[in-house]
Design a protein that fits this description.
The protein is of the alpha+beta class. The chain is 39% helix and 27% strand. The protein has a six-stranded antiparallel β-barrel. A hairpin with a 7-residue loop joins strand 1 and strand 2.
Length: 295
């Protein structure tokens, strides 16, 4: 009869044996890769489970990255749009300053040609009365402005000071129906008077003989007679010459050289009497008489 309980190896012996076997197996696996097929098989079986477990975390991470990227792109776009608007505003200011500098350079160049004392004024207001062409400038008696002082822009004669206040003045443009200016044809020296027509784009020449040598494109300059305007400065360009049979005078119109309806920077010119100009006062009186006859 066998005993119910047999005495086996002790726990210590079993631990030593298991440790020895483990070390042998690890050594063999390190050298021969005996467990590699088992590991690959187990990895293939476990991979779907690992993918299923990691999927929510991977999806959440990708969504977070995309949201962060989209938010970043939107923020960058907003900043770029704001910067673009700021640059556009600066560009407009730069363009305005560039135009302003060009006008000032032209004005300064004009003053050099005049060889007279000049002051730069700025247009403040335009009279609303359609029957008078008056503008107001930001200089007055305190800056040395006087009645009758000629006013120019960068292109030509613009008008004369009509009224003077302490710090502002009213300028009557050469297109005003009551204004007249002695002119001469730059090509041949023919003298006449340019009258305002009430249209800022048109002047009329008074009492031009039908056989006078004048044609379209001729430049009319200030004759300097009367001392009101500097001699030789552009006034207008002839645009049409109409001669009717049996009429002693031709109908001649011209376009002002100055930009009467656009210029904002003006030149106030101080012109001394020219001793080399004979009969200045007489010619000025003749110009007034012609103006009255024409009207």
């Amino acid at each position: 009869m066998k005993p119910l309980f047999t005495q086996g190896p002790s726990a210590t012996v079993r631990l030593v044996l298991l440790a020895t076997v483990s070390i042998l197996l690890m050594s063999l696996d390190h050298r021969e890769h005996l467990v590699e097929p088992v590991r690959e098989t187990v990895s293939g079986v476990v991979y779907p489970l690992r993918f299923v477990v990691d999927a929510p975390f991977s999806i959440a991470e990708r969504v977070s990255e995309r949201l962060a990227t989209r938010h970043q792109i939107m923020e960058e776009n907003r900043q770029l749009r704001d910067r673009h608007l700021a640059y556009q505003e600066r560009l407009q200011r730069m363009q305005a300053l560039e135009r302003e500098n060009e006008r000032l350079r032209e004005l300064l160049g004009s003053s050099e040609r005049l060889e007279t004392e000049v002051a730069i004024a700025e247009l403040m207001r335009v009279e609303l009365d359609p029957h008078t062409h008056l503008v107001e400038i930001d200089r007055g008696a305190s800056q040395g402005v006087f009645v009758g002082q000629p006013v120019l822009d960068a292109n030509g004669v613009m008008g004369q000071v009509d009224r003077v206040g302490p710090r502002s003045a009213s300028v009557r443009l050469i297109s005003d129906p009551s204004h007249a200016i002695p002119v001469e044809n730059h090509r041949n020296g023919l003298r006449t008077v340019a009258l305002g027509s009430g249209d800022p784009q048109r002047l009329e020449l008074a009492n031009v003989p039908g056989n006078a040598d004048i044609r379209e494109g001729d430049l009319l300059t200030a004759s300097g007679f009367g001392g009101a305007f500097p001699r030789g400065y552009p006034v207008a360009e002839v645009t049409s010459v109409e001669v009717e049979a049996g009429e002693p005078f031709a109908r001649v119109t011209a376009r002002p050289a100055a930009e009467l309806d656009r210029s904002r920077k003006l030149l106030l010119v101080s012109v001394a009497d020219d001793p080399d100009t004979p009969g200045a006062e007489d010619d000025a009186g003749a110009a007034d008489d012609k103006s009255e006859d024409e009207s």
